[in-house]
């Protein structure tokens, strides 16, 4: 019983069928029998739901069994699950079961602590593809809008679509107000770039924690911390951004101190605050807010980098260009600067956040890891500034690609190292199909 269609006959007196959907994007669904026990495991001869033995080594040959309690006609059936003496156990909503356990829609079933995870869902029988040659046209086939189920929100990218519609309406409404138009466009483009990073990371971090990191960075840039840092790095230290000698290597050295180190330290402050709160707050708040792995650091760092981008672009670059050349020129600067944060500020600080999170997993080498992370992020930052002055657009393209490679490599390695890898929605689990 693998793949998208049930191999057994469904009870025609019931309006709903049960299905296990694997917790990973665009994965197979496994139907549960309403008339006989459904066995899940690695044995292809005797199991109804067969999982690949090479991919799922933590799954036993006969791991778990689902039993259906058939109710009165036209009622929703109810399933229970029982562990079949598996080595690594069966978990329902992260709790290991010791006896037969009743299930409800939305329950999460995991085979072993680090094994594949599934969600129990109910689908109307009108959604079930008939296994007989005479296939009937159903209402939900003709009008899919009536087949809405919880997965629709995630797989159809419903929230990004709604946000886009709202942004378009606000842009139309602000068409006569150039300043409001620029702010709305910057907010939308920056959020879209960050959403891309969030989807790559695949770890669920509360939205309000990410928003807090972004907001804290904006507040830091409006506080006395910024002028104090500018004085130290650009006056006391040799970090003048436009030194008398404009050669590439001199520019690189000055920008490494005055732009790279200074700005990356500013953007790392929200990550440090989250790290401290995570050590001080009680559970579960410490896990939600704190930095416990590289993915936490990347998400918080990228959010901080986005806050920095918005403040720098809307508060400095766009007003300066618009005041000198007009609103159209300001808009032309805004779009590449905000979208470019994906390979700019968010990439630099995302990589630094990866190193901060890695230092938590490898505390013995914490100081070395953080120094390397700060140095590399500052170097990429300085390389961007120096290349812009020395080589123009082609230099920026090369540095932007390099920064993006650093970020995506960090994300992929962070997903591999993640202690919560089995819950990562960006990691695909492939069942036997």
UniProtKB/TrEMBL annotation:
<dbReference type="InterPro" id="IPR050923">
    <property type="entry name" value="Cell_Proc_Reg/RNA_Proc"/>
</dbReference>
<dbReference type="Pfam" id="PF00498">
    <property type="entry name" value="FHA"/>
</dbReference>
<keyword id="KW-0472">Membrane</keyword>
<keyword id="KW-1133">Transmembrane helix</keyword>
<feature type="transmembrane region" description="Helical">
    <location>
        <begin position="390"/>
        <end position="412"/>
    </location>
</feature>
<feature type="transmembrane region" description="Helical">
    <location>
        <begin position="156"/>
        <end position="174"/>
    </location>
</feature>
<dbReference type="InterPro" id="IPR000253">
    <property type="entry name" value="FHA_dom"/>
</dbReference>
<dbReference type="GO" id="GO:0008233">
    <property type="term" value="F:peptidase activity"/>
</dbReference>
<keyword id="KW-0812">Transmembrane</keyword>
<feature type="transmembrane region" description="Helical">
    <location>
        <begin position="209"/>
        <end position="233"/>
    </location>
</feature>
<feature type="transmembrane region" description="Helical">
    <location>
        <begin position="338"/>
        <end position="358"/>
    </location>
</feature>
<dbReference type="InterPro" id="IPR008984">
    <property type="entry name" value="SMAD_FHA_dom_sf"/>
</dbReference>
<feature type="domain" description="FHA">
    <location>
        <begin position="38"/>
        <end position="97"/>
    </location>
</feature>
<feature type="transmembrane region" description="Helical">
    <location>
        <begin position="365"/>
        <end position="384"/>
    </location>
</feature>
<dbReference type="Pfam" id="PF13367">
    <property type="entry name" value="PrsW-protease"/>
</dbReference>
<dbReference type="InterPro" id="IPR026898">
    <property type="entry name" value="PrsW"/>
</dbReference>
<feature type="transmembrane region" description="Helical">
    <location>
        <begin position="180"/>
        <end position="197"/>
    </location>
</feature>
<protein>
    <recommendedName>
        <fullName>FHA domain-containing protein</fullName>
    </recommendedName>
</protein>
């Amino acid at each position: 019983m693998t793949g998208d269609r049930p191999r057994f006959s469904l009870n025609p007196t019931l309006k709903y069928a049960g299905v296990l959907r694997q917790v990973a994007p665009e994965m197979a669904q496994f139907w549960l029998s309403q008339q006989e026990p459904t066995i899940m495991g690695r044995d292809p001869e005797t199991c109804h739901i067969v999982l690949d033995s090479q991919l799922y080594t933590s799954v036993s040959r006969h791991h778990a069994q689902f039993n259906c309690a058939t109710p009165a006609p036209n009622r929703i059936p109810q399933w229970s699950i029982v562990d079949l003496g598996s080595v690594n156990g069966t978990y329902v909503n992260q709790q290991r079961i010791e006896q037969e356990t009743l299930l409800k829609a939305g329950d999460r079933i995991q085979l072993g602590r680090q094994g594949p995870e599934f969600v129990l869902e109910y689908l109307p029988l009108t959604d079930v593809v008939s296994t007989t040659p005479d296939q009937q046209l159903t209402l939900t086939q003709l009008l899919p809008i009536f087949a809405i189920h919880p997965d629709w929100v995630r797989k159809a990218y419903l929230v990004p679509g709604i946000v886009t519609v709202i942004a378009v309406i606000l842009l139309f409404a602000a068409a006569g107000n150039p300043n409001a138009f620029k702010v709305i466009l910057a907010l939308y483009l920056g959020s879209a770039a960050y959403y891309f990073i969030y989807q790559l990371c695949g770890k669920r971090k509360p939205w309000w924690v990410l928003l807090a990191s972004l907001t804290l960075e904006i507040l830091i840039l409006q506080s006395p911390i910024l002028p104090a840092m500018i004085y130290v790095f650009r006056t006391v230290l040799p970090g003048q951004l436009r030194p008398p000698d404009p050669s590439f290597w001199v520019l690189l050295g000055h920008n490494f101190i005055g732009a790279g180190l200074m700005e990356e330290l500013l953007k790392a402050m929200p990550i440090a605050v989250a790290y401290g709160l995570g050590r001080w707050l009680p559970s579960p708040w410490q896990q939600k807010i704190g930095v416990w792995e590289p993915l936490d650091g990347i998400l918080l760092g990228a959010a901080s980098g986005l806050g920095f981008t918005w403040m720098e672009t809307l508060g400095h670059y766009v007003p300066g260009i618009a005041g000198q050349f007009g609103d159209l020129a300001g808009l032309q600067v805004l779009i590449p600067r905000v979208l470019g944060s994906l390979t700019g500020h968010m990439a630099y600080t995302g990589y630094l956040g990866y190193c901060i999170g890695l230092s938590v997993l490898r505390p013995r080498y914490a100081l070395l890891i953080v120094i390397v992370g700060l140095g590399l992020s500052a170097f990429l930052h300085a390389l961007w500034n120096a290349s812009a002055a020395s080589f123009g657009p082609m230099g920026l393209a090369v540095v932007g690609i390099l920064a993006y490679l650093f970020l995506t490599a960090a994300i992929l390695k962070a997903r591999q190292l993640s202690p919560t890898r089995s819950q990562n929605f960006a990691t695909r689990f492939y069942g036997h199909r």
